[in-house]
Every structure is written in C-alpha cells, then in structure tokens.
Design a protein that fits this description.
By secondary structure, the chain is mainly beta. About 15% of the residues lie in helices and about 45% in strands. It has two helices and eleven strands, in the order αββββββαβββββ. It has helices at about 1-5, 70-80, and strands at about 15-20, 25, 30-35, 35-40, 50-55, 55-65, 85-90, 95-105, 110-115, 120-125, 130-134. A six-stranded mixed beta sheet has the order 1-4-6-7-8-9. The chain has a three-stranded mixed beta sheet with strand order 3-2-5, with no helix packed on it. Strands 10-11 form a two-stranded antiparallel sheet. A hairpin with a 4-residue loop joins strand 2 and strand 3. The longest helix has 14 residues, at about 70-80.
C-alpha cells in the first residue's frame, strides 16, 4: 500500500497504478507474470482477455516471499528488463532491501540498479521521477 500511495501522484499521463491481479504477457519469452504492483497504460485493461500486453507496462513491483524470491530476483528481472519495462522495483522482505532496476535493453536487460535498506530513500527514475521511502 505504501508503494502504491507514494507512486500514484507520479504515474505518467494515461497510465494507472494497480495492485489488482492481472497477468501480463511477454510473447518474446513465452511467459506471463502477475506483478504485485503494476503501472500500465489505461487502455491495456480494455481487452477481452485475462492476459494483458507486457508492452503497456511502465513499472512493475514484486515483493518477495519464500516461494517467489528466487524467481523475482532471477527470471522476472531478466524478462522485465529484456522486455524493456522501464522500471522494476524489487522489495526483498528477507534482506530488508528495495532494489530499483532501470535503463532496460532487449539484449542485456536492466543496465542499472540502486539498492537501499528499509527506512532509506531511493529515486524512481523516468517516467516517474520521484523519491520512494522504503
């Protein structure tokens, strides 16, 4: 809820921040993920399918759990980055950290990341350009 509250005023025009369960597809990887929090183009949800296009995403956030931590840190970071989702926020409940990944490329995935401990502040880059208190 805190992440949603902090991001909402900075959502790009025409986009919407949500925590509702939606599956975003990434056809180039033959996979679909349901991020814990997602910011996407409003028109992306106006489809007659349970699957939404990953290309509509401007930010995804995942909160690790025992069953998802490995996938959140590995596969999802790789797919989101190579699919060029502009920002990926990873809240690692076991390490007490927040990592913000950005500058994605289709070949390398995310080229930058910043990691902070809970209680610190981190910058969420364009298209949000805001500070996040973890």
């Amino acid at each position: 809820d805190s992440l949603l509250d902090q991001l909402s005023p900075h959502v790009p025009p025409g986009h919407r921040a949500r925590t509702t369960p939606n599956l975003y597809t990434f056809p180039q990887f033959d996979d679909a993920f349901g991020p814990d929090l997602h910011v996407s183009d409003k028109t992306a949800t106006r489809v007659d399918s349970i699957f939404l296009p990953g290309s509509a995403l401007s930010l995804v956030a995942e909160q690790t759990s025992t069953s998802t931590r490995h996938r959140d840190l590995g596969e999802k970071a790789d797919v989101y980055g190579k699919a060029e989702v502009p920002v990926y926020v990873l809240i690692d409940m076991f390490q007490g950290t927040v990592t913000v990944f950005d500058d994605p490329t289709p070949d390398l995935g995310y080229r930058r990341h910043a990691q902070i401990k809970f209680g610190e502040t981190v910058r969420i880059p364009s298209p949000f350009d805001c500070e996040l208190e973890a």
